[in-house]
Amino acid sequence: MNLYRLKINGTPFNPDSGYSDSELNGNTPYVFADVSPDENIYDDITTVENIWNSNLLDWARRRDETVGPFYAIASANLSTYGNLNSEQKLIGAKYFLVPYSLRVSNGVVTEQEDKDNWLFLLQETKESRINCVESMRLYVGQYIRLGTLTLAQTQDFFKDVFELINWFEQANLPDFKQWLTNEVASPYENSGFAQKAYYSNALRDELMEIYNGKY
Prior knowledge:
Blueprint: E1 2-8, E2 11-12, H1 21-24, E3 30-33, E4 42-44, H2 48-53, H3 59-74, H4 86-94, H5 111-145, H6 151-171, H7 175-181, H8 201-211
Antiparallel strand pairs: 1-2, 1-3, 1-4
Helix pairs in contact: 5-6, 5-8
């Protein structure tokens, strides 16, 4: 996803300007989206720094969205790491997008800061996974409301994925995703979501959207 900023009468949105409701015209000042909501009134401001400084997503999802812009500068093998500015290097260190030698050994952060940053990452990524699963639970609940699934079916769903969800939340194991998608060559290729009576393509696709950070 890219980060977009609203323009007011052709001028970039300024959070300190105190715009009226009529000036905003129902538009959101900042938007994360796959494509611009309206190219006439939104600018693409996707940069490592802008994503870092935004508050539209939780920390872990901002980290995910930073990966592309970061490696576009540094390259996947970090061969152009020197093209990063000092702020981008610090962000890369805090997000653990680079190895120890490019975090601590080169002085971007101290050993203690690196320890603290790592504990923070573990905390935030786990919280994000828990929030992801909760978003899925609420979405599936709408199927009960609409009568598309019965309560018994959703309870079966929960029982079927309980252990997989726990693995995902606690250790980010891939089994839950593999089960949802019947991933080829995984243990769930022929014994996953698609084999369940409560399965539908629409439900799988929406749950994968949530899994991929759109919640």
